[in-house]
Every structure is written in structure tokens, then in C-alpha cells.
Specification:
It is built from three helices and no strands. By secondary structure, it is mainly α. The protein has one domain. The longest helix has 53 residues. The radius of gyration is 25 Å and the shape is elongated. GO terms for molecular function: monooxygenase activity. InterPro entries: bMERB_dom, F-actin_Monoox_Mical. It holds the Pfam family bMERB_dom. Keywords: Coiled coil, Membrane, Monooxygenase, Oxidoreductase.
Length: 154
């Protein structure tokens, strides 16, 4: 087994493991965001009740509650933006995995001796190549979405 094949196999496993670790990290963060959303919602409900039942409450206290409520809304919007970024990252990881699998299949067909390929092999190779181009195009769309989002936030 040539050294370069072992190296490629090892690097592929490392890349797959890195994608898996990233996916786990993203999943944990999404769960944390969900918990934080619930907490912010509960705090918001309490503040709204206080503001509705403001009979005889000093104006300073009302202003403070309103500022707290606005802060909660701002924090929730920030978390929603982060969640959106994480969902894009999840899609990128899925596409990377898909691209790796397609690359692997394509290499198999490309390493075959041309004279030994059947017509079915040639068709399969072309289909894999088209799927690979489709995955790359989807990656480009995600990058475009991220760039638009970044520009709109500026």
C-alpha cells in the first residue's frame, strides 16, 4: 500500500473527524441558544406584566423596565443572528461531507483503466461529476448568503 494512499486516507479520516467535532460543537451551541431563548422569553413576560400593571409605579421604574425589555429584545435578536450563522455552518458541514464522499467515488472511477471501464462506469462517473458540481454550487450559494448577511449587518 503506497505511502501517499495511507497519507490521503489518514487526512480524510482527520477531516471527517474535524467535521464531526464541529458538528457536535454547533449542536451544543444551538441547544444553549434554545435554553437562553426560553430564559429571555420568561424574563420578557415578567417585564411585560410589570409594565401592564404599572398603577402607581414611579416613572423611573417604568423607564428601567422598558430599558430592560429593550435589552432582552436586542439580546434575542443577537442570538437569532448567531443561530442563523450556525445553521449555515451546519449546511456547510453537510455539503463538505457530501463533497468528500463524491470525491472518493469519483477517484475510484478516475483511477480505473480507461479500457476497463464499462459504459455504466462512464455514466456513473459523469453523474458523480455532475453531483459534485451541484454541491460546489450549493456551497457558493451559502457563501453568498453569508456575505449578504455580513453586509446587511454593517
Amino acid at each position: 500500500y503506497p505511502t501517499w494512499k495511507r497519507t490521503l486516507t489518514r487526512r480524510a479520516r482527520e477531516a471527517q473527524m474535524n467535521r464531526f467535532c464541529k458538528a457536535q460543537t454547533i449542536q451544543r451551541r444551538l441547544e444553549e441558544i434554545e435554553v437562553t431563548f426560553r430564559e429571555l422569553e420568561q424574563q420578557g413576560i415578567k417585564l411585560e406584566k410589570l409594565l401592564r400593571d404599572e398603577d402607581g409605579t414611579p416613572a423611573d421604574q417604568k423607564t428601567q423596565w422598558m430599558n430592560q425589555l429593550l435589552y432582552l429584545v436586542q439580546k434575542k435578536n443577537s442570538l437569532m443572528s448567531e443561530e442563523s450563522d450556525l445553521m449555515i455552518a451546519v449546511q456547510e458541514l453537510k455539503l463538505e461531507e457530501q463533497q468528500w464522499q463524491l470525491d472518493h467515488k469519483l477517484r475510484y472511477y478516475m483511477n480505473m483503466e480507461e479500457s476497463l471501464k464499462t459504459p455504466e462506469d462512464r455514466v456513473a462517473e459523469q453523474e458523480i461529476l455532475m453531483q459534485l458540481v451541484e454541491v460546489v454550487n450549493k456551497c457558493n450559494v451559502l457563501i453568498h448568503i453569508q456575505e449578504e448577511k455580513r453586509l446587511s449587518e454593517l
